[in-house]
Amino acid sequence: QVQLKESGPGLVKPSETLSLTCTVSGFSLTSYHVSWVRQPPGKGLEWMGVIWGDGSTAYNSALKSRLSISRDTSKSQVFLKMSSLKTEDTATYYCAGSYRYWGQGVMVTVSS
Amino acid sequence: DIQMTQSPSLLSASVGDRVTINCKASQNINKYLNWYQQKLGEAPKLLIYNTNNLQTGIPSRFSGSGSGTDYTLTISSLQPEDFGTYFCFQHNSWPTFGAGTKLELK
Q1: pLDDT per residue over A65-110, tens digit each?
Q2: Which residues of B touch A46 (CB under 8 A)?
Q3: CB–CB of B97 and A47 under 8 A?
Q4: A35: which chain B residues are within 8 Å (Cβ-Cβ)?
Q5: Across chain B, how many H-helices and E-strands are there?
Q6: CA end-to-end span of chain A, whole Å?
Q7: Distance between CA A49 and CA A35 in Å, rounded?
Q8: Which of A52, A93, A104, B30 is spaced 20 to 30 A from A78 at the CA atom?
């Protein structure tokens, strides 16, 4: 069955770069798109960006200058990198396949 | 960016009630509207995709409708496991979520 799982550091310092990995199984990255979505504690959901089946990307305009999404199809992995982190980037980060299948999320705290 | 105005933000209801949650888009989203349920500490779960398509495994008491800018999620007879927060999500262009509706026990 389709599964996605996020991994990465739980704590990052302000101004540093966040690197997260989404490992997928049960579907091909060349056939389905994968998005990153985040949710600050107690708040709503924010779509961050997507990598399409053809490898092209699109980003939330509010994050575009700091965000990069890439993938390694041989490893069935999608990567998120976000630079210049701020405390307000503290959130649970999810990857989602075709807006249908979601990972369990990884909580990231930005703090010195 | 397309803004999604979701209402109500808080809904108190009883088991067996029929409930509706609404989302209004700031422009036509061509039925590219999904509904998700989220419970505390869990990832969102897809209920309805593209306005009115029931995701596999989701009970038929959930239904969706709408077109243009106005969309509705209906739960025909509320069950105890339905309490949680519901989000609408448009993916017509530059995806955006509604702010959420917390469905609580009256």
Answers
A1: 999 999 999 999 999 999 999 999 999 999 999 999 999 999 999 9
A2: 97
A3: yes
A4: 95
A5: 0, 11
A6: 39
A7: 6
A8: B30
